[in-house]
Amino acid sequence: MKDLSQPSRDYGVQQDMEAVAALERDAQLMLRVREGDETCFALLLERHRGPVVNFLHRMVQDRAMSEELAQEVFLRVYRSRATYEPTAKFTTWLFRIASRLALNAIRDNKKARRQESLDRELMEGVERQVADRKPSVEQEMIREVRLKEVRLAIDALPEKQRAAVLMHKYEGLEYTQIAGALRCSESAVKSLIFRAYQTLRLRLSHLSPGV
Amino acid sequence: MTCLKNSRRGAEILTDYCAGVLDSIRAAELETHLQECAVCRHEVEAQRDVWEAMDAWTPVQASPGFDARLYARIAAEDRQPWWRRLVVKPWLPVTAAAAALALALFLIPGSTGRIQNAPSTTVASDKIDLQQVQQALDDMDMLTPVGPIARAL
């Protein structure tokens, strides 16, 4: 039997090709922004606005703060257009800015405000959901409890583990990209991610369908 | 294959399998193993449950005025004269002050010796946490324009 711990060659080639294509697409857009093409900045914004806002929202768990930080991310991208060099995948660079801003914001303060905001947003989310799709009250309560548990479990993770696992789970970034974003080695990122999932498995085990 | 818990890359295989990014050959081998190993099966189920529970956290949409606010900030920055843009860079005064201090210490005869001999400073420097220093450097790095960061990557 083949050793599973050895990487598959075909899979690696396919991943490399996809990475090169993405690198070229975003880098080309950014290079055109450097030359003064504002439309390309709008395209980059359109492509990456959602992922950046969502990553920041899940990091700081505050809607207003996450939008403010996302604005700062894209402002920094725009400011750097003149000196931009496509030496790394655009997404890596983008999430590096985003994760640094998020980590700084978290360290700065706002724990109390975030908790208030978390509760408020959960309630708002419930109201919206009830109004939009009208699930049963019981279904909605279950969903609310699950969501709150997940958010609290993620919020309780150490900051770097949180950033790494959010980029992995929700943004689909590869280990190398997350390593670039967090400025650490790929093995360190893997360790962060695996420890985070291990913690989440323990903290969320009571949500398992069989329990 | 060996159990996930005993494999050096077990955690990676487990995570990649549940994320759906493990290549088909290795995934098939793992599935064969799962049929005969209850321990690994439990690990996979637990990881899948977490993965699915996390799916409950659906994405949010940026507010409708997001782009307009961003472009307004960009336009406001573009309208500023070049010297004003330099002034608003918060890292500039810090860097200038640090450079001036370093220069003063270097130029004033015996100043470095006095500082090294001052007991309070020595005690304080012993207490500096390396992690704090690294954090401060990282924070300074964030204050610099993002261009050099891109080049560093």
What does the model show?
- The complex is a heterodimer of chains A (211) and B (153).
- Chain A is mainly alpha-helical and 211 residues long.
- Chain A has a single domain, classed as Orthogonal Bundle (Rna Polymerase Sigma Factor, Chain: A), CATH 1.10.1740.10.
- Chain A contains nine helices and no strands.
- Chain B is an all-alpha fold and 153 residues long.
- Among the domains of chain B are: 10-55, no CATH class; 76-108 and 125-144, no CATH class.
- Helix content of chain B is 75%, strand content 0%.
- Chain B has helices at residues 10-19, 24-36, 38-55, 66-79, 82-87, 91-107, 111-117, 119-126, 130-143, 146-152.
- The model of chain B is unreliable at 113-126 and 144-153 (pLDDT under 50).
- The chains are: A mainly alpha (211), B mainly alpha (153).
- Chains A and B meet through helix 2, helix 3, helix 4, helix 6 and helix 9 of A and helix 1, helix 2, helix 3, helix 4 and helix 9 of B.
